[in-house]
Amino acid sequence: MVSAAVINDSRAKAWGKLVFYCFLIWVFGWIVGPYIENNISTYKQIVQIVEERDIDSAAYMYMDSVGSYDGEYYLTDSFKHSKRDDYGMTKAFFAGILSCFLILGFGWRFIMK
Amino acid sequence: MAEGSGIVVDQGKWEWSEMWKKEDWWAIWIGFFLLIAAMFVYFPHSGEMKEIINKAEAKYGQAANRTSAIKTIAWHQLSDAKKKAEAKNISVGKWLKSFTGKTHGWKDNPLDAFFMSKEKADAKADKAKAKYVKKKASEELAFATALAAEKIAEAAGFKDVALNSSASTAIDKWRDAKLAAGAAKKKTSVKPYNQIGKLIGLGVFFCILFGIPLSIMGVPFKKFALGFVFVYAVTVLAWFFSNQATMKHYGIGYAFWAIFIGMLISNTVGTPKWAMPAVQTEYYIKTGLVLLGAKILFEKIITIGTAGIFVAWVVTPTVWLITYWFGQKIINMPSKRLNAVICSDMSVCGVSAAIAAASACRAKKEELTLAVGLSLVFTAIMMVVMPIVIKGTFPVDKQMILGGAWMGGTIDASGAVAAAGAFLGEKALYVAATIKMIQNVLIGVIAFFVALYFTTKVETEETGAKVGLMEIWFRFPKFVLGFMAASIVFSMIYTGFNSELDGLGRAMIDKGTISGGSDLFRGWFFSMSFVSIGLATNFRELKEHFKGGKPLILYVFGQSLNLVLTLLMAYIMFYVVFPELTATI
Fold first, then answer.
1. Taking 70 as the threshold, does the pLDDT of residue B29 lie above it?
2. What is the pTM of this model?
3. CA distances (Å), B468 to each of B9, B207, B465, in order?
4. Which chain A residue's Cα is nearest to B307?
């Protein structure tokens, strides 16, 4: 009987903790978070931009972010439009890619021994 | 699979049966099944996309190309018209998006996440319409000003620098107004929805998609299905919280909520035993990673030219290696795996790189959790602090490009990069997001590098056994091959479409097979894996990995180095080596 009471007590504590943490989420989402948004001007501006532009600020990959597509399109077309010969698959561009692999090779040989 | 130990281990001799008995292979099969299905859906529509692009060229092409001195209004109109070519907009694509949709955004009423009546949708649309009318009027005014300025510059043959500059400024203002009006217009098309039935249907589909292969691997389908109900319900809950307005503003996304809710359950009331057969962290992650591979398109690295490649592809591996060395030699990180995962998320692109590196080096769940947690905290801070620093300290003429490149190369998550970039302006947003995109492509290289390093060096050191080529093959995490294969195949298809017609790759791959196909599932798979991580993580074990605050020291050191090197490289490349190219942005 005692052990059953102890088990019940610990279950109640566990559920109590769960409810308490849920309460903390509510406090952040509905009190602290909005308070910071409304009272720190930079945050207020960022929130306004996020809302206005419909930016998913929680996106983890470039595909999930609208700016990436528009930016890619804008930049590619800008460079093509400028008709410059230092844009594209130039020697300098390949040097950049090669540098990446040389750095990794160097690291493999000397740093990650 | 050694789920209990928290590490997935492939050991033993190669047998062909591995291809249907190991989750690494099933991740590849499921991933490619979804990719091929998406190709079947979208590829037959390439003709329609070509037509849209050709029509745009016919309408605006000539006017757009009448000068290369400035980006004229017609140039932007051509760009906008070509962007309308998106294969995912076909009816099947729209249905797929709706069926695989997560919970909707909500602010005060939790029911809005699942259901919205016609009356409420209409009221919301009406409210948005008033705002749109205002934005539209501003856009029209800005357009008239831009048009007038452009006409004056054109009258001088686009040869007067001052007139060109004032026309460009007016056009940029019109673009900003147009962006704002476009976003406001989107909000006027609120439609009623009921996501509950779709969420149930999607859950059944996922249960079958993962359950049947698992039954072949030895987990009874019934047991998996029962547990999956729980895992899926928690996953939906994670999306529900991440789509709450305040959480979205702070960039607290599904990864945080999935781990947090999972850990909350496992460390308070406990994860029910019957749910454990569906707690398949590695299985979901690897499948998501194979899908992720398809969007790592190599052609994208050229987007911002040589300057961008140096900022993203030279600084990133340098920071990765120095931070790894710092972790091993200076602060003596006890776990090489945790060291590698933190290096990856901090130097490459946050959560997605952490997932790829953790799977490639077979890191423990707690190690991935810790790395993701660090990344999320610093991302939230940097998203706010960096634009303030840039605005306060950078010369005005360098805020957009240099500031954008700096943020794109250092802030971990793409969404936060976009938000911080947009704070500075449209150009900063584009530069920042593009640098981040190029860095994203590096995930494949880093994951392969990490997998090879841990297979050939670290595991050899741990087991004391010499490894030959065959042994390397046995141990190598096979899903990495699927990830690489998806990346190479889709890069080739993407380039093929683009060489057929400029912009077709974007319409068919970016905005078709990927965002209308694999992307719809990838987020779900990653969130299910994070829920699984949370449900199997003991808070005490997590604390053990944080002993002495070494992971935090490592992250702070690496990120500080990243901030210095990225800024230096961006300045040198954009303003010393390629200033003329930079001026064309």
1. yes
2. 0.85
3. 18, 39, 10
4. A93
